[in-house]
Amino acid sequence: MTEDATQKFKPENLLHFTIEVFTHFNIPRDHATLAANILALSDIRGIDSHGVARLYSYVGLLSEGLINPNPKIRIVREKKSIATVDGDNGLGLVVGHYANEMAMDKSEKFGSGWISVCHSNHYGIASYYSLEALKRDMIGWSMTNTTKLVAPLWGAERMLGTNPIAIAFPGLKEPPVVIDLATSAAAYGKIEIAKRHQEDVPSGWIIDKEGGLSTQPEDMINGGALLPLGSTRDLGGHKGYALASMVDILTAVLSGANWGPFAPPFALRQEMPSRSVGKGIGHFFGAMEIDGFMEVQEFKKRIDEWISVMRNTKPAKGTGGVLIPGDPERMEEIKRKKDGIPLNASVIADLKTISEQTGIPFPGNLGQ
Amino acid sequence: MTEDATQKFKPENLLHFTIEVFTHFNIPRDHATLAANILALSDIRGIDSHGVARLYSYVGLLSEGLINPNPKIRIVREKKSIATVDGDNGLGLVVGHYANEMAMDKSEKFGSGWISVCHSNHYGIASYYSLEALKRDMIGWSMTNTTKLVAPLWGAERMLGTNPIAIAFPGLKEPPVVIDLATSAAAYGKIEIAKRHQEDVPSGWIIDKEGGLSTQPEDMINGGALLPLGSTRDLGGHKGYALASMVDILTAVLSGANWGPFAPPFALRQEMPSRSVGKGIGHFFGAMEIDGFMEVQEFKKRIDEWISVMRNTKPAKGTGGVLIPGDPERMEEIKRKKDGIPLNASVIADLKTISEQTGIPFPGNLGQ
Q: Which of A239, A277, A288 sits opposite B82 (nearest CB)?
């Protein structure tokens, strides 16, 4: 079986396995369930890089005592609709969930709520938090800083993470508009896949260690960097760099976390930063009550119409036409709910290693 | 004198001329002064497209009674930290200023303030509003929707504006980080300049009317469109489209303004939308008290360090190295305060036409 061949698994089985693994590492069952559900959501929506594939990294950090399995998450500073939260070095999935809840509770009280979080770890997919806000008729924002991978425009080294921005808006009959984007031109996973396939990558994704544009994945992996969204100065690379900076400042400078190149790694195999300028990594959550701006049904109807108009844009020749943000993940969700979650050989091997270490049985696959 | 040759003018003289022109069109002097100052800020920061060069368009709309010179700006719905504001079809520069003030006042009271605005017009540079927030030790957000120019990814027609996002963060000894970016790959002005020079534009800026990539400015001007930031699917064009959508929804769907392709034009010569789905165009302002998250001096010190670390990134070969968002405008400001504001022949001709219409003397230039 090659690296890219996949076997399919029942979502519930992977979820159950993940809960047991987290529990094995002394994470309270309610937290373990929460965290496992966020990874499962990622898998079901087709964002493979942020699902159960990450469990091995979480386990590595938990085994080494680098993540606190039972954090006391607390507000360290506050003024009505805003606050800074210290995640006590818990799982980012758990810290993120509770900080996002705090933002929504504030929103209920003050019309909006905004939480900057320090002392946390990798929090999964950014859109999980925005989707939670939809359940309460709120508009939910979510951002996080991440381990350095991206060069600022005209820089030749990794200084920023892929720092995603997520926000979601509910429709009435239409599904929600779900925006979730990394502020880099491409994901690091795509560079690794290209390397494995010995393929070139498009010009505009990466630079080599001198800062020159490259199409060779090795050039990025060996000391180069990802480019920000927009890629080059001509195509707006300064804008992607500015967006990544915005996320870095809101999540980490403002909360007291480690910003920029000092964000700690999300896996043991990664390089440790040269110094610490704060606590853990940072997140930023926002929630706004739709009802404070406009009657909720009216807003949802307007979103439905917006979706319908955008979807009916004249299609560009040779394409399937315009999609609505969130469409690809929703389509993948329908498929995966039916067919199961595909995992590749390397992820399966990692999970089997965890199974051996912990004695928790790894579930069987659904056949080919 | 060719179109691109410039003459230089004293900032104060242009400011004074602009105030008198606005006043001539029955705008109260305090509003006229406010609006003129925003255009002057744009000119001094080197954002020529949004400065006094726009006066001719404003005058055109005012002459035709399409902008209300004396708006009653009012809150139409509110819940503590959030509100929707109706700009009563005033100058966007005036409506924007007052709505931004409301966001800051709410922030003082509730830790943060968020205002979605309908029934407004073009509001100048997005960063003006974020810079105002710095004066009150707040983090200021500003967005607006604009006349359609941009195609959603895989679309072949103009459906969204260049919908900018601005946010600013104060330094202590360092100047602030000032982020202000259109969510399109390039500005429309650049396409017009390329056409005038009979030059090609980079691939990734525009599409023709069938949605195909083009490097011929005419292809965009004659029924084509700008591409969103990220340009193509490979380089992340879906992300720029998602960001433009976010801005469109927060500014216009949420406020009750005209969204997407229905945003009214900012100049008489532009096409009128096929229908109306709300009132005027929309803005979105946010303000957050830094002090509610972190002690203000501490935050500013952390920003100083962030700036210093980013500035010291190893430079990419053949470049001058990494800039901080806001650097180019700040450098231009220093230069223009000394040398004056350069205006090109076409802008000067427009301003002289206004001078003839109104009898307000157009100031002399500073010589070549």
A: A288
Optimal mutation site among A322, A324, A327, A329, interface B, most CBs of chain B within 10 A: A322
Q: What is the pLDDT of residue B3?
A: 63
Q: Considering the entire predicted model, what is its pTM?
A: 0.98
Interface residue A310 vs chain B (CB under 8 A)? yes
User: What whole-number distance in Å separates Cα of residue B34 and Cα of residue B11?
Assistant: 15
Look at residue A193 and give its three-state secondary structure. helix
Closest residue of chain A to B326, computed from CA coordinates: A242
CB-based contact B230 A246, cutoff 8 Å: no
Does A321 sit within 8 Å of B111, measured CB to CB? no
Q: Which amino acid is at B14?
A: L
CATH of segment(s) B186-226: 3.30.60.50
Residue B194: list chain A partners with CB under 8 A.
none
Q: What is the CATH number of domain B71-182+233-293?
A: 3.30.1370.60
* Entry field: residues in chain B: 368
Of A261, A348, A60, nearest in space to B311 by CA: A261
Rounded to 5 degrees, what are φ and ψ at A92?
A: -60, -30
Q: Is A98 on the interface with B (CB under 8 A)?
A: no
Sequence spans of domains, chain A: 1-69+341-368, 71-181+230-311, 186-226
Q: For B1-70+338-368, CATH number?
A: 1.10.1530.10
Question: Which of 237-296 (A) contact B at CB < 8 A?
Answer: 238-243, 245-246, 248-250, 253-256, 259-261, 277, 288-294
Under an 8 A CB cutoff, do B156 and A245 touch? Answer: no
Residue A129, SS3 per DSSP: helix
Tens of pLDDT, residue by residue over A74-121, are 999 999 999 999 999 999 999 999 999 999 999 999 999 999 999 999
* Nearest-neighbour CA in chain A from B59: distance (Å): 32
Instruction: Report ipTM (2 d.p.).
Output: 0.97
Handedness of CA B118, B119, B125, B129 (dihedral sign): negative
pLDDT single digits (tens) A281-306: 999 999 999 999 999 999 999 999 99
Look at residue B1 in the predicted model and tell me its pLDDT. Answer: 47
Please check whether the domain covering A1-69+341-368 is classified as CATH 1.10.1530.10: yes
Fold of A71-181+230-311: Ribosomal Protein S8; Chain: A, domain 1 (3.30.1370)
Q: How far apart are CA A351 and CA A348, in angstroms?
A: 5
